[in-house]
């Protein structure tokens, strides 16, 4: 049985729905985790395939991107943001989301190249997003970000700033295998993902009750998340991986 780890955020619902509605669900062990755990499982070999933060691709002994679909954004994404009560030039320290790897690396690039600032970066624990105050900011990713988007005076959407800096979209996560998979499985897997993406309303109706924080999930999935790993996203991903190498 093929072991697969997928991200347990709202933005993955179309993928999860497509896989659950396909015949593949009978031959896979589908596990839902937050992104850094997906990464650890693929690196450690406890799963065969995962929707992983792209930052881990260079760390794998073998890395096979097996799908034309990803978790990406062509501009603002709403769920990968730096939250602060003061303007960025006044920020003294930033808590880094423990669920994230790619977004942490992206923030470091933007701090260095775009803002040219050097605040103290701190590892964060569960509940850190409740302690944003004064000159202390936080990078928050995923569904917890929805509740923060009306809570703080300054919100810096990292993929929007990446687009402004580079002119390219950003890829947060891709479907990566740590070994070569059978071609027939890859074809069936991509068909399942495509089916889920073709019926986002049904995916939300079936899977959406577990994700109550987003006020307009249809808009988020259709207009904020960009799922096709097209040429422009590949260029953005390659640029990002060069910058972190």
Structure in words:
This protein is of the alpha/beta class and 245 residues long. It has 2 domains: 131 residues, D-Maltodextrin-Binding Protein, domain 2; 87 residues, 3-Layer(aba) Sandwich (D-Maltodextrin-Binding Protein, domain 2), CATH 3.40.190. Helix content is 37%, strand content 25%. It is built from 9 helices and 11 strands. The strands form 2 sheets. The protein has a 6-stranded mixed beta sheet. Strands 7-6-8-5-9 form a 5-stranded mixed beta sheet. Helix 1 crosses helix 6. The protein starts with a strand and ends with a helix. The model has no long low-confidence stretch (mean pLDDT 96).
Relevant CATH superfamily of the largest domain: Periplasmic binding protein-like II
Shape call: globular
CATH first level of the largest domain: which class? Answer: Alpha Beta
Biggest sheet: strand arrangement = 2-1-3-10-4-11
Number of strand segments: 11
Alpha-beta content class: alpha/beta
Tally of separate domains: 2
Uncertain residue ranges: none
Name the CATH architecture of the largest domain.
Answer: 3-Layer(aba) Sandwich
Helix proportion of residues, in percent?
25-40%
Distance between the termini: 34 Å
Largest sheet: 6 strands, mixed
CA-atom Rg in angstroms: 18 Å
Q: What's the tally of helices?
A: 9
């Amino acid at each position: 049985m093929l072991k697969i780890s997928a991200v347990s955020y709202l933005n993955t619902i179309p993928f999860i729905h497509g896989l659950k509605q396909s015949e593949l669900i009978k031959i896979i062990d589908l596990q839902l985790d937050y992104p850094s755990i997906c990464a650890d499982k693929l690196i450690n070999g406890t799963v065969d395939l995962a929707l992983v933060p792209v930052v881990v691709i260079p760390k794998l002994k073998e890395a096979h991107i097996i799908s034309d679909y990803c978790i990406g954004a062509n501009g603002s994404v709403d769920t990968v943001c730096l939250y602060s009560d003061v303007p960025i030039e006044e920020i003294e320290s930033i808590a880094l989301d423990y669920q994230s790897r790619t977004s942490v690396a992206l923030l470091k690039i933007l701090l260095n190249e775009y803002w040219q600032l050097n605040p103290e970066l701190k590892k964060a624990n569960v509940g850190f997003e409740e302690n944003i105050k004064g000159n202390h900011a936080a990078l928050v990713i995923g569904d917890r970000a929805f509740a923060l988007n009306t809570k703080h005076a300054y919100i810096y959407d990292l993929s929007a700033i990446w687009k402004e800096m580079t002119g390219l979209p950003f890829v947060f996560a891709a479907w990566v295998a740590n070994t070569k998979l059978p071609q027939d499985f890859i074809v069936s897997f991509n068909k399942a993902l495509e089916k889920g993406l073709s019926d986002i309303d049904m995916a939300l109706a079936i899977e959406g009750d577990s994700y109550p924080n987003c006020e307009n999930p249809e808009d988020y999935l259709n207009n904020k998340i960009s799922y096709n790993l097209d040429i422009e996203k590949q260029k953005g991903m390659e640029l990002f991986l060069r910058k972190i190498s």
